[in-house]
Amino acid sequence: MKRADIGLIGLAVMGENLALNIESHGFTVAVNNRTSEKMHKFINGRARDKKFIGCLTVEELCASLKIPRRIIMMVKAGEVVDSYIDTIVLHLERGDILIDGGNSHFADSERRWKSLKEKGIHYIATGISGGELGALTGPSIMPGGAAEAWETVKPLLQAISARVNGDVPCCEWIGEGGAGHFVKMVHNGIEYGDMQLICEAYQIMKEMLGMGYPEMENVFREWNDGELSSYLIEITRDILGYRDEDGSPLVEKILDSSGQKGTGKWTGITALNLGIPLTLIGEAVFARCLSAVKGERTAAAAVLTGPQVDFAGDRTRFLSALKDAVYASKIISYAQGYALMKEAAKEYGWDLNYGDIALIWRGGCIIRSVFLDRIKQAYDVRPDLINLLLDPFFKETIDRAQNGWREVVATAATNGIPVPAISSALNYYDGYRSARLPANLLQAQRDYFGAHTYERIDRPRGEFFHTNWTGKGGSTASTTYSR
To answer: 66 an active-site residue?
Structure first.
């Protein structure tokens, strides 16, 4: 019996295309799906006459694999993954490798890694980005989990990944436990932010500058030829140029109510838990939530008032300012995302290579852009860089862009155009560059009503004080503050 090099479970869009990608690089792939109908359709359709073995059960798939077994799960995150693991491990032996290529929450991956380690099974929690086409032609791959199994899966995963900068694979080891899925989660959060920034620019062009679709398409084409060049700018150009059957822009007929699968929300919640100000991505998630209450917004639009849009400036000059605003805000988004990864690395004991992460994202994935080369260079020069804003290139870029950035935020507010991501990015920048914030008053308030204590600028850090502000509260203090 001919044995397969690897097994793949889950033949939805990503799984099916990833299986074809693996096979195209010379590997024989055993496949299984929850419903046998989909498996048969794949084997008799796109997989016909290729190196695939169709398996009706998980047991059959495990029996068809070379030792040590390598299995990729491409199934829905959550309980489905746990259910499959419970079934698969019944047919595995010590030293076998189980790869979770779905969008699992990193905390679940940490738990599964520890549990399977006790059984002698190597669990590789792997973030995969690139969508349908990326899975087929070469995605960005972020593996983590059992480090001892990396050398065994490395040739396969790097063979099927995207490649950049002279054939460098967009796949490198991230770290133990849930590190791979954590980095993928942050990637998705940044993706939320990039998409929201583009949508805000689109709304400004359309509603404040009164631009038509051909004009907007041309602007995004120009942006994609410069420093904003990226996959998301490119597809926005294409979307704005796409016409429905009647010749009108198709995007105009799409309901303005956004969906989400939860990874952006996870990123925001994790940032709150770790005490990292991930403001832009948070606003991007909330913008989707606000869009989803379409009925409420429609009713509110009939009764709530705002300023009339009245832009009387130089449109060409303002478009240049808008480009600066988007670029500067994008820098903030990545600075916040990297700050979150650095804090998580300390919290969970991961040794993350931040330059390599930028390179992994440089090709194949949804947030791929020329911008990422600058991030890799920044961390290659200073691996201990605290914040991207302190790198000379990004500092100088913000210096050049901030006048236009501020003009866009102010003009949008004056005209009643919401720009939550662009404005929150500016607020973060102004807060981060402030040596003194009004948190001294906030701490006084907390101590006044809750005896939560405070530190003093004329005493060493780590000494906490409580004041009996009313003369009636006594001297007993509560716990000190934390993140």
So the answer is: no
